[in-house]
Design goal:
Layout (H helix, E strand, L loop, with lengths): L9 H9 L5 H19 L2 E4 L1 H10 L10 E5 L26 H8 L3 E6 L33 H8 L5 E6 L5 H7 L2 E4 L20 E6 L2 H11 L17 H4 L8 E4 L11 H16 L3 E4 L6 H27 L1 H5 L3 H12 L2 H24 L2 E5 L15 H10 L5 H7 L1 H12 L4 H6 L3 E8 L5 E8 L4 H14 L7
Parallel strand pairs: 2-3, 7-8, 7-9
Antiparallel strand pairs: 1-3, 4-6, 5-6, 5-10, 9-11, 10-11
Length: 489
């Protein structure tokens, strides 16, 4: 058994394979050994195909930069031919006969895919506590949330099962669990990574996929492998000047960094999180960067409503699609919150959706203006450290209300009465700093820099200019090198 498995990031493991110091089979043996030991406690992996992974080694893994490195896929969006895709739902189980374009590129990088990770139903909530597979536990504290929707992937990396895992981000779903589990997570620019062949864009452009990692260079190296033009995609953004990996190896010039401490949703930011933010700003100044408190000019009341309208409209369309494909019995098994969001989406008009998208442009313009004068914006990733299980999902009473009303399109009435804000507020408040990146399409990352007194990680978020992941990777590598990352479970 390769006992030093947990001491290496993905690039380090791949280098050992290239040099003949360890085999891909030994790496898989080690990953499965850690999974057998730790997954029963954290419930990060919900479907494994060990024998297939061993066959993939026998058949010959592609000679990419991550050849032989064990890897897992979030069980949402990513189709892996021959393996079930359940999307955290009791009502869905499809077995695709093709790979998503992103999965095809992952495979070309040489990784050895052996499991799927836990996710909330359809990625619609920011805690991984689905009724289908049960909650994922934070590797730092049993009974605490991993965040979501890439919570299973974040937990798998934090627990040392894999050094790198696939994730997706529609409202913070890479950055959020990265913060709560203490790993590095970057959401790339809109259009940087492919979403096909099933989607050109998802959630009106809010969704982006990438990986959650132990090291900055792994994230950069995989983005070099996965990004690039895709046939049929609505975007084709400029590639990096050199490579994303090269950006992690360059000296970091003095940067102008805007510091934002005000959430974009009405919520209270935890005192420990604000203290971590101030500490980060001081560290950046010591490293030679200019940090200045500047808040983006965004109407926070309109901001969350516009996001909610778009997402609910997308959920309404998704539920209608699954009803057509699989019948009413499938939809009947969906969670109450999913049915309720679909009802809200059906209540809005096409004009409401267009109006919300115009609101997104206002946010894009505000951030574009701010980032004209600054290289990056610093904020907390999440307003609090991880919460115990049961805090974020809807209560049983709320679920009964949802089940009683989801067949009648009364969404606008619920909005006017304030019930939507009351019920969604606890979740939206946790997303108060991450949603902006999805609305604008700007790249952003959560960097694991702090720990709470309760032993839970606190991530700091940096948002960059459109298409400029290089500056993010460059700064993250400096922080990793100079300050070190917290959060190893």
């Amino acid at each position: 058994m390769f006992k030093e498995y947990g001491n290496y990031d993905a690039m380090g493991l791949a280098e050992l394979v290239r040099n003949g110091e360890v085999s891909a089979k030994e790496l898989l043996d080690a990953a499965l050994n850690v999974a057998n030991e730790r997954n029963p406690q954290i419930n990060a992996l919900i479907h494994r195909f060990d024998e297939r992974a061993y066959r993939q080694i026998e058949q010959g893994l592609p000679d990419g930069p991550f050849k032989g490195v064990p890897f897992v896929l979030k069980d949402l969006l990513a189709c892996f031919a021959g393996e079930p895709l359940r999307m955290g739902s009791r009502g869905i189980c499809v077995v695709p006969d093709y790979d998503s374009e992103l999965v095809r590129r992952y495979k070309a990088s040489g990784v050895n895919i052996f499991a799927k990770t836990n996710t909330p139903e359809f990625g619609l909530i920011i805690t991984t506590e689905p009724k289908s597979f049960g909650p994922s536990h934070n590797p730092h504290k049993q009974g605490y949330s991993t965040g979501g929707s890439s919570g299973g992937s974040a937990a798998a990396v934090a627990a040392g099962i894999v050094p790198m895992a696939h994730g997706g981000d529609g409202g913070g779903s890479i950055r959020f669990p990265s913060s709560w589990c203490g790993v590095f997570g970057l959401k790339p620019s809109r259009g940087r990574n492919p979403l096909g062949p099933d989607n050109g864009e998802d959630w009106q452009g809010a969704v982006a996929e990438h990986v959650l990692t132990r090291s900055v260079r792994d994230s950069a190296g995989m983005l070099d492998c996965s990004s690039g033009v895709e046939v049929g995609a609505p975007y084709n953004i400029a590639p990096p000047k050199d490579s994303f990996l090269a950006a992690t190896q360059r000296d970091t010039p003095p940067l102008r960094i805007a510091l934002s401490r005000k959430p974009l949703v009405n919520t209270v930011v935890d005192a420990e999180v604000l203290a971590a933010l101030d500490n980060t700003a001081q560290s950046l100044a010591k490293l030679g960067h200019h940090v200045e408190e500047v808040e983006p000019q965004i109407n926070i009341e309109q901001f969350w409503r516009d996001f909610f309208v778009v997402v609910c409209a997308e959920v309404a369309n998704m539920v209608a699609m699954y009803r057509r494909q699989f019948g009413a019995a499938c939809v009947a098994k969906f969670e109450p919150a999913t049915k309720n969001m679909a009802m809200l989406g059906r209540s809005f008009s096409a004009a409401d959706l267009v109006s919300a998208k115009r609101g997104w442009h206002d946010v894009q313009l505000a951030m574009g203006r701010l980032l004209t004068d600054f290289d990056l914006m610093l904020s907390p990733t999440v307003s609090t450290p991880a919460e115990p299980h049961g805090v974020l999902p809807n209560t049983r009473t709320e679920e009964l209300l949802m089940l009683a009303s989801h067949r009648v399109n009364i969404g606008k009435l619920l909005f006017r009465g304030g019930l939507v804000e009351e019920m969604a507020g606890p979740i939206l408040g946790k997303m108060a700093f991450t949603i902006m990146g999805n609305v604008t399409g700007l790249p952003g990352m959560s960097v694991p820099l702090h720990m709470s007194e309760n032993g839970l990680p606190i991530g700091m978020q940096f948002t960059g200019r459109m298409g400029d992941e290089e500056t993010l990777f460059n700064l993250a590598a400096q922080l990793e090198r100079e300050l070190g990352f917290s959060g190893k479970a």
